[in-house]
Write a structure and sequence with these properties.
The chain has about 260 residues and is of the alpha/beta class. The protein has a single domain, classed as TIM Barrel. It has six helices and ten strands; from the N terminus they run αβαβαβαβββαβββαβ. Strands 1-2-3-4-10 form a five-stranded parallel sheet. The longest helix has 25 residues.
Length: about 260
């Protein structure tokens, strides 16, 4: 779609029509993921033309311009961030939704338990904090345009030894992604790790790395202190009786 001007225009016109028909406030682009210099160029063209079209439509309709955002990779662990056109992102999007999760999955690391979406990472370079910093410092997107992504799901491992049940414990296999509400149904012993700002829980040889109310609240505080504009989650259906959505300190704000 993004390679040719005519298909970009069709996409842009359709997205604006759908947004207005459904009384949306804005549109979010989820391109997973640009992975070449050609993609970078096409991404830049798409969002520039999108912004121009939204501005023109606003003048014609007399309505407030639709807000534009994009969901982007939160780390080079996911895809090289160099393939995002940082200057064009900063100039044409109102918000940038940094998907600061899936940094360490049970599929990618099946033999050692992991914090899937750590705010800090003393063992290496990949973390949520590192991702938003790179978007700001390297790609040049202002902090007040960045939203921190929070996962309402985690990853499951099968422990090699039920007595070795902390972070980075040996595992027999990775068992994939699990919704937060399904993790809570296990009734496992929950631990909050303040160093990585993550939760994990275990029951027998079942081990889950995820974000619970403690890590969600801590990340929201950290993001606000860092100067980010807000936060978003993927996704609400995976919550358990609104526990994460109503976690202490969960405040959406615009300044």
């Amino acid at each position: 779609m993004a390679r040719q001007a005519n298909t970009r225009k069709s996409f842009i016109d359709s997205s604006i029509q759908q947004a207005r028909s459904n009384n949306f406030l804005g549109l979010d682009l989820d391109w997973e993921y640009p992975s070449s210099d050609t993609d970078k160029t096409n991404f830049a063209s798409l969002i520039k033309e999108w912004k121009e079209a939204v501005t023109k439509e606003s003048r014609t309709s007399g309505k407030a311009p639709l807000l534009l955002s994009a969901a982007v990779a939160g780390s080079d662990q996911i895809t090289p961030l160099k393939y995002y056109p940082g200057k064009d992102v900063a100039n044409n999007l109102d918000f940038v939704n940094v998907m600061a999760y899936d940094l360490f999955t049970s599929e990618g690391y099946p033999t050692v338990t992991q914090p899937p979406a750590p705010w800090n990472n003393p063992r290496g370079q990949f973390s949520a904090e590192q991702g938003v910093t790179e978007w700001n410092k390297t790609l040049g997107v202002p902090l007040n345009k960045l939203n921190l992504g929070l996962p309402f799901y985690g990853y499951k491992w099968s422990l090699s030894d039920s007595n070795k049940n902390g972070l980075f414990a040996p595992a027999k296999q990775g068992l994939g992604a699990v919704k937060y509400k399904d993790i809570k149904n296990v009734a496992a012993q929950v631990v909050f790790d303040s160093t990585y700002v993550t939760n994990y829980c275990f029951k027998g040889t079942d081990w889950f790395g995820y974000d619970d109310t403690q890590s969600i609240s801590a990340k929201v505080v950290n993001a606000k202190q860092k100067g980010l504009v807000g936060y978003f989650a993927w996704h609400i259906e995976q919550d358990s009786n609104w526990a994460l959505s109503q976690a202490d300190k969960w405040k959406f704000y615009l300044e």
